[in-house]
Amino acid sequence: MVRGNFFYQRLAEKIISLRQKRKLSQEQLALLSDLDRTYIARIEEGKANPSIKVLNKLARVLKTRISSLLKGV
After folding, report:
1. Model pTM?
2. How far from 48 is each of 2, 41, 57, CA to CA, in Å?
3. Residue 46 and residue 9 in contact, taking contact as beta carbons nearer than 8 Å
4. What sign results for the dihedral spanned by CA atoms 27, 33, 36, 42?
5. DSSP string for residues in the chain
6. Where do the domains of the chain lie, and which CATH numbers do they carry?
7. pLDDT digits (tens, 9 = 90+) for 25-63
């Protein structure tokens, strides 16, 4: 596995964990963050490279900070 992919996989795990903690489906997270559900799925599979703008949208909906999303990733 390429090292960069490991970064995206750890980010994905963190986003999934926070989403589930907030009891949100991928569809709900997508609607609230104004993103496509399939893009959320790709992020959660570690197959997408989300921009800072996208991470900011996700962090806002998940009621956390971008720094918290990236901590330990």
Report:
1. 0.89
2. 14, 9, 15
3. yes
4. negative
5. --HHHHHHHHHHHHHHHHHHHTT--HHHHHHHHT--HHHHHHHHTT-----HHHHHHHHHHTTS-HHHHHTT-
6. 3-67 (1.10.260.40)
7. 999 999 999 999 999 999 999 999 999 999 999 999 999
